[in-house]
Amino acid sequence: MALIARSLLIFFLYVGAVNAQQCDINFNYAVIIDPAHVRMVNHGQTYVQINGEHQLFVHGREIQLNNTQKQQLSEYTNGIRSQVPAIVSIAIEGVELGLKAVNKVISSLTGENSASHQQFQEKFDEMKWRLRSRFNHSDESYYIAPQDFDDFDEIFAGEFEKEIEAIVSDSVGSILVAVGEAMTHREEQSTEQRVETFDQRIETMGNDLKLDISKQANALEIKAEAICTSLVKLDAIENILQQEIPALVEFNLIETN
């Protein structure tokens, strides 16, 4: 059991590299995007709705805008339409990178075509599908809840954390059996030698996993940094809208600290 725990710990050690990028920005409302509308929802009620790029509704009441205000709103709307899908994408990538790491640990311990690994893979594939469908309903439809972006890869992981733990826990028994059988079949080695061989296998797997994931983790960090910079710029546009449009004076979707 200690060896298994140590093996699974590799996942947390190396995937943790994705957490390096910090972004001290909050979304105070939920955001829903579809091809025709952008909606900001506060406590279940639509606070601000933008139809197309220029038609603004606040608390269900249409706000008349001059040409300058329309141009500012258009820039803001396009920014939201650009950044929310990017946030959803990078968060899903972060979660999937973590699942990939766990999956690689399991396949290395039990064998890629083992029954336990296939069962584990099926459960994770189902979870990944539900993760995507939850936040990315179609190519042009997105939802993101109110939250901060301190760690991009943890934005959605929290909702699935218990499920991930349950999947791993349910698989530990079959993993132990598979590992035990693999070690027992090494009849030419003593028990001590088998443990030492398994330790070496774990160390090699950890090094391979680190090399495999580090490039993807670095790529995610670069994406996260770009998104964070874009959200700061978008917050500046939002501040202008608050000043120029009285109905939006208390509206504050993006909060930068």
Describe the structure.
This protein has 257 residues and is an alpha+beta fold. It is built from five helices and ten strands. The strands form two sheets. A seven-stranded antiparallel sheet has the order 6-5-4-3-2-8-7. The chain has a three-stranded antiparallel sheet with strand order 9-1-10, with helices on one face. Strand 3 and strand 4 form a beta hairpin. Residues 1-20 have low confidence and may be disordered.
Assign an overall shape.
elongated
Average pLDDT, rounded to a whole number, is 77
Adjacency order of strands in the biggest sheet: 6-5-4-3-2-8-7
Helix vs. strand class: alpha+beta
Distance between the termini: 44 Å
How large is the share of residues in beta strands?
A: 15-25%
Please compute the radius of gyration using only Cα atoms: 24 Å
Reading the helices and strands in chain order gives HEEEEEEHHEEEHHE
The counted number of beta strands is: 10
Uncertain spans: 1-20
**How can the largest sheet be summarized?**
7 strands, antiparallel
Helix content: 55-70%
